[in-house]
From TrEMBL:
This is Transposase. Residues 277-360 form the Transposase IS116/IS110/IS902 C-terminal domain. GO terms for biological process: DNA transposition. GO terms for molecular function: DNA binding; transposase activity. Residues 6-165 form the Transposase IS110-like N-terminal domain. It holds the Pfam family Transposase_20. It comes from Kitasatospora kifunensis (Streptomyces kifunensis).
């Protein structure tokens, strides 16, 4: 049976493609424009070399991304599409030479060779539902904004430490990324202006954001702002104040957009048919559940076993054996977004699931550190989730931990 193998090196406005047959013979190379015109030319190119009667499943494509309308068009056409990690492609190209030379046509050739020779070692792009893709878009955007807020706050904090460390102490009780703390900083960005803040001014900001114990908080903030501290020349202080105001306004905008996206994340997640199963798991709420669903996807054929899901999650360990050496290490090459969500789930599950707590304590009793024990708990929870999704049943505490409870009782 004729099978065509296509390497697709994509750029912002074009795609360099190479078409090979099963023997590795190059049938065609072409540079195609992005968009409808380009995908039409690709279909025509495939039809020309497939003899006109080539079925969609006989076309295998390697490309270094798993997102975007171009990839979705390839999947919609029925082609088998493999998303190749750029690091994998770089290592594969080293068999051609170690000079480090690079070209778009060379990359397309390497991708075509990869899907022809090593596709059994690659992961095909999952056929996730439209709803799962929608969850992925908003969940990733929401998490990206949170990460951006953290980076912006770290810059703000670093600036305050250089000229106004008293502000960090004064607003610590409000959470320094909160909008009311930022509004107070904008009102008084320098120590001289902060000393002049009155209790009614502080109370008004706290009331606008519905803070409890406003009077006591206002008194504590005012007292902290009036504590004596080392100063800088006035022009330098004013310049620092301008920088802080800019960062504070950016944090306020980020807070608003994070809140707006959070509503979208919840709405899209709750509309997904798997949401009930995810929410039945210990330690998972709407946001964490949306992130886990977004990264795992909902293609029922994607993970052939619980181990495959654990490997993708990065919770299962990596064994390194060579000669007399045999070590088991954490898996650091992984999906960072998924790893972050599973870490949060495992931590929260300690307080909501007796079975999870017992499993965690068992790992700690074996001298496992905090993070390794939490990672092993996350690995166990991924296996339980896989079973629930496969059988379409909700999480049950007794069933999930019955084996471990039996072993503990016997011990």
């Amino acid at each position: 049976m004729l099978v065509l193998f296509i390497g697709d090196d994509w750029a912002e406005d074009h795609h360099d493609v190479e078409v090979q047959d099963g023997t590795g013979q190059r049938l065609a190379i072409s540079r195609l424009p992005e968009g409808v015109e380009g995908i039409a030319k690709l279909h025509a190119l495939i039809g020309r070399h497939g003899g006109g009667d080539l079925e969609a499943g006989q076309v295998v494509v390697g490309i270094e991304t798993d997102r975007g309308p171009w990839v979705q068009a390839l999947i919609a056409a029925g082609y088998r599409v493999y998303a190749v990690n750029p690091k994998q492609a770089a290592r594969f190209k080293e068999r051609y030479g170690t000079s480090g030379a690079k070209s778009d046509r060379g990359d397309a050739h390497a991708l075509a060779d990869m899907v022809r020779i090593d596709r059994d070692q690659l992961r095909p792009i999952a056929g996730d539902s439209d709803q799962a893709q929608a969850v992925r878009v908003v969940a990733r955007a929401h998490q990206t904004l949170i990460w951006e807020r953290t980076r912006t706050f770290q810059r703000l904090r670093s600036t305050l430490r250089e000229y106004f460390p008293g502000a960090l102490t004064a607003y610590a009780g409000l959470e320094l990324t909160s909008t009311d703390a930022m509004e107070l900083l904008i009102k008084a960005p320098t120590p001289e202006e902060a000393v002049k803040l009155t209790k009614p001014q502080i109370t008004a900001v706290l009331a606008r954001h519905r803070r409890r114990n406003r009077d006591q908080r206002a008194v504590a903030i005012q007292a902290a702002l009036r504590e004596p501290q080392l100063g800088l020349p006035t022009p330098v202080t004013v310049a620092y104040g301008a920088a802080v105001v800019a960062h504070a306004r950016l944090l306020i905008a980020l807070n608003e957009q994070i809140q707006a996206l959070e509503e979208q994340v919840s709405a899209h997640f709750l509309a997904h048919p798997d949401a009930e199963i995810y929410l039945s798991m210990p330690g998972i709420g709407e946001i964490t559940g949306a992130r886990v669903l977004a990264e795992f996807g909902d293609d029922p054929s994607r993970y052939t076993s619980a181990k495959a899901r654990k490997n993708y999650a990065g919770t299962s360990p990596v064994t390194r054996a060579s000669g007399k050496q045999h070590t088991v290490q954490a898996r650091y090459v992984r999906n960072d977004r998924l790893a972050d969500a599973l870490h949060k789930q495992a931590f929260s599950a300690l307080n909501t699931s007796p079975g999870a707590r017992r499993y965690y304590d068992k790992q700690r009793a074996r001298d496992a550190g905090y993070n390794p024990a939490l990672r092993q708990l996350g690995n166990r929870l991924v296996g339980i989730l896989h079973g629930c999704l496969k059988t379409r049943t909700l999480y049950d505490e007794a069933t999930a931990w019955s084996h471990h409870a039996t072993l503990a009782a016997a011990a």
